[in-house]
Design goal:
The structure holds two protein chains of two kinds. Chain A is an alpha+beta fold. Chain A has seven helices and seven strands, in the order αααααβββαββαββ. The chains are: A alpha+beta, B alpha/beta.
């Protein structure tokens, strides 16, 4: 989905707060532990977790700190999986307990292809309503495969709680000036891209 | 002052406590899980793990080669662990002419069992939005002014393998013991937000 979480290359942001000020919030490690508990118990998978964060109301996403986004996703998924109810959570707090928006259907992987280091590839020009791990800044762009990684469950399927096929990813190298012509610093940009998102280009 | 508290979002502290209590009351969450997990994460998943790998790579060319070929195996060799969904650790070698920097634009993925929990700035929106497009500018703002001849390679962690940067060894530290070297390796240098200085640098 083309959500606000897809931040790569978005303009208007400011200086990175660096170094980050030290703070000691006890609820943050607790969120981390509750999240780990649900994952360890296989109540949901990491792709479902990421998609739940993406489904947050955009204004809430942008204003929430990292662990608040995680908290919202964990609570949303535990409600959706029937482990707790929204009413139980709301009855225990003084104010609203916002959850992420509703989930839609996932999609299937493309027919298997094989890629090798050095292959020239193009990222498909796809607009996906559900979960996808293709950042918008590479959509339709051309690059070169520099590494092929071990297979993972295809996230566009797995994030929707459906049984996902395993699929390898390619680290694809792009030139920043191909991604943002005339409006970027010179660099080589690498992105881990699932093979379903890619099409092979003929060698020149 | 009349004020409808129900229309405001409850504090994250309160929401987190509520979620924990509901899970406990239902008997879902074992009594000791939170304590045990937090203690394990804080004791075991620390920056020192990555720092020790880097120090080994600097002093042992054979380990360096193994680490660059298969970061996961090199980490396991030193006794470090990975969560189930981290399938591969990819080690990116900085050289005099190449500087690698890591980001996760879609969320905030890192090899947290190896380099430690990601710092706040790495997870913040400004870094995620800008470092892919304005890498040199962002690094300069963060205090790393790279020569124009240095090639910058940005790595966006969009799949479930994880990256770490193998920083350049400061020339003034050649000959140091592995133990002393590990002490100078910072988390930021393994993300690529900084380069390491020698003694007194």
């Amino acid at each position: 989905m083309d959500g606000v979480h897809d931040l790569g290359g978005k303009q208007g942001f400011g200086r990175v707060v660096y170094p980050w000020p030290k703070h000691d919030e006890t609820w943050e490690p607790l969120v981390r532990a509750l999240s780990a508990f649900a994952i360890k118990r296989h109540i949901y998978n990491m792709d479902e977790m990421r998609h739940a964060i993406e489904r947050m109301e955009p204004r809430h996403y942008v204003s929430a700190a990292y662990f608040e986004r995680h908290l919202t996703a964990v609570a949303t998924l535990l409600v959706e999986k029937g482990v707790v109810t929204r009413e139980e959570l709301e009855s225990m707090v003084d104010g609203m307990f916002p959850l992420a928006g509703a989930i839609g259907p996932g999609r299937q992987a493309a027919p298997p292809q094989s890629f090798a280091i050095g292959d020239r590839v193009r990222v498909k020009n796809e607009y996906v309503p559900g979960h996808v791990r293709m950042p918008a800044y590479i959509r339709g762009k051309e690059g070169v495969v520099v590494r092929v990684s071990p297979p993972y469950p295809f996230p566009d399927t797995a994030a929707h709680g459906e049984r996902a096929p395993m699929e390898a990813t390619c680290d694809v190298r792009f030139r920043s000036r191909d991604l943002w012509p005339d409006s970027c610093d010179e660099a080589l940009n690498h992105v881990g891209v699932f093979q379903s998102y890619l099409e092979k280009l003929e060698r020149v | 002052m009349a004020h409808d508290r129900r229309s405001e979002i409850a504090t994250p502290e309160q929401r987190t406590a509520a979620l924990e209590l509901v899970l406990r009351r239902k008997g879902e969450l074992p009594e000791t899980f939170v304590h045990d997990f937090t203690e394990h994460a804080e004791d075991e998943w620390v920056t020192d793990n990555g720092a020790r790998m880097v120090a080994s790579a600097w002093t042992d060319p054979a380990f360096r080669a193994r680490m660059l070929a298969d970061g996961t195996a090199a980490a396991r060799e030193m006794g470090f662990e990975f969560p189930e969904h981290h399938r591969q650790l990819v080690v990116l070698e900085n050289t005099a002419d190449v500087h690698n920097v890591i980001v996760c634009t879609l969320c905030s993925c890192t090899a947290y069992t190896i380099i430690g929990a990601a710092p706040g700035w790495y997870k913040d929106l400004d870094y995620r939005a800008r470092v892919v497009r304005e890498s040199r500018t962002v690094l300069r703002e963060m205090g790393l002014d790279l020569p124009s001849s240095t090639e910058i390679r940005v790595w966006d962690t969009t799949a479930d393998h994880r990256y770490m940067v193998l920083p350049l060894q400061p020339p003034t530290t050649v000959g140091w013991s592995e133990e002393d070297l590990a002490k100078i390796v910072t988390q930021d240098s393994m993300i690529g937000a900084s380069r390491l200085q020698g003694v007194g640098g």
